[in-house]
Amino acid sequence: MPRLLYSLTLFFLLPITLLKLIWRGFRQPDYLKHWKERYAISFPSCTKQSIWLHCVSVGETRAAESLIKALIKQYPHTPILLTHTTPTGRETGLQLFPRDTYPQIQRCYLPYDLPWAVHRFLQHYQPKLGVLLETELWANLIAGCRQKKIPLILCNARLSAKSAAGYARFSQLSAQALQGLTAIAAQSQEDAARLLQLRQRETPAIPVTGNLKFDFNVAQDSHERGDFLRKLLGPSQAVFLIASSREGEEALILQALKQSPLNAKIIIVPRHPQRFDEVARLISQYGFRFCRRSEFSQGNVASEISQAQIILGDSMGEMPTYYAASDIAYIGGSLLPFGGQNLIEACAVGTPVLIGPHTFNFAQAAEMAVQAGAAIRVQDVKQLLETAEQLLQHTEQLAQMSLAAKQFVSDNQGATEKTVALIKQMMAH
């Protein structure tokens, strides 16, 4: 009964999903591409019997990079199917796994979670095994896989206390979904405990495999590209990165910078590409001289770039470069209650990190980074700028934090190997 009511609700919301796609398409035209896949009207031609991974957006796709490469090595003759929900996730998948280098990788959007759409998707691709990344509890998808005897694993699973409370409001549906999974692999003991409680079943136990994001591979040319960007910005100029900023945070930071200017070049990289123009207008309204990263190759002379107070990072796939070019990075979504973004990429590059009070999306990683000396937590925007200024004046402390950041990532790697072992076990049955 809970799943029937859930399906009926989704069915009646279907027209709204179409309107939402059109509305988003005005701001980000890529939302209008491949829209038939979302409604299971048609899919690209495919090689069946793939290993299928669902990576919602950019974060999940990057987290899955090491796992996908390990699976290709383990099963070189088995196709890989990547499904996404957002265009940025799909684009990230293409950047990490170009078609000419990885011809065995197939791509499409995962359809909306309606029984008939799930049936058409599974019937078309007929995957050998499915892997859901992080916290993707789609009731009809899980039920469809179970009916077709397709093993389905929730790996790199995380469940914050806030999310657990939300799922608990629909406890029957959530329990059914979790019980329908073939296996679950959690990031931490806390995540495993919350998932067990939500599943309402003590066995089988939920193993802790760690966080795939610690197995992040820094591209060989990231530091070279970072050094090149740093030279463009002014090699003697300190650089402070605002990474993956969320709506409302840029205004807070820009207002604070007007009152207490920071002796550093500021790079602002909004979390969502559709907000690039909005943030550009905001920077202009606050009266800062700025330059867009996308304009660097359009005839800008070096003096224009070096004289800009703020650089708007409006390019895709360059976050490691931004980290490598910066002395310190604030990880967005944590000053305001968005739950924070992934700080592991910054630490892997060796960039010291500042985080706000709201990091419930990455609670364990954030706390571990603070304890390791790789990150400092601040309570508000005033303290953020004060701490950044203080660190920039103490290069020895910055250097110590940089070493601690790299060590923090190194000490917590190994989730890929454990996850591949679990997948091999499922594939053997």
Protein architecture, described:
This protein is an alpha/beta fold. It folds into two domains: 2-210 and 414-428, Rossmann fold; 222-411, Rossmann fold (3-Layer(aba) Sandwich). Helix content is 49%, strand content 14%. The chain has 20 helices and 13 strands. The protein has helices at 2-27, 35-38, 58-63, 65-74, 87-96, 115-125, 139-147, 161-168, 171-180, 189-199, 222-233, 249-259, 276-285, 302-307, 319-325, 344-349, 363-372, 381-392, 395-411, 415-428; strands at 51-54, 80-84, 105-109, 129-133, 152-157, 183-186, 239-245, 265-270, 290-292, 310-312, 328-331, 353-355, 375-377. Strand 9, helix 14 (302-307) and strand 10 (310-312) form a beta-alpha-beta unit. The two termini are 31 Å apart. The mean pLDDT is 93.
Question: Nutshell version of this structure?
Answer:
This protein is α/β, with parallel strands linked by helices.
SSE diagram, text form:
Blueprint lengths: L1 H26 L7 H4 L12 E4 L3 H6 L1 H10 L5 E5 L2 H10 L8 E5 L5 H11 L3 E5 L5 H9 L4 E6 L3 H8 L2 H10 L2 E4 L2 H11 L22 H12 L5 E7 L3 H11 L5 E6 L5 H10 L4 E3 L9 H6 L2 E3 L6 H7 L2 E4 L12 H6 L3 E3 L7 H10 L2 E3 L3 H12 L2 H17 L3 H14 L1
Parallel strand pairs: 1-2, 1-4, 2-3, 4-5, 5-6, 7-8, 7-11, 8-10, 9-10, 11-12, 12-13
Helix pairs in contact: 4-20, 6-7, 7-9, 11-15
| CATH domain fold name of the largest domain | Rossmann fold
Structural class based on helices, strands and sheet pairing: alpha/beta
Q: State the oligomer.
A: single chain
**Count of separate structural domains:** 2
**Arrangement of strands in the largest sheet:** 9-10-8-7-11-12-13
Q: What is the radius of gyration computed over CA atoms, rounded to a whole number of angstroms?
A: 22 Å
Number of strands: 13
| Assigned CATH architecture of the largest domain | 3-Layer(aba) Sandwich
Low-confidence stretches: none
CATH superfamily of the largest domain: 3-Deoxy-D-manno-octulosonic-acid transferase, N-terminal domain
Tell me the span between the first and last alpha carbons: 31 Å
Strand residue content: 5-15%
What integer is the average pLDDT?
93
Largest sheet: 7 strands, parallel
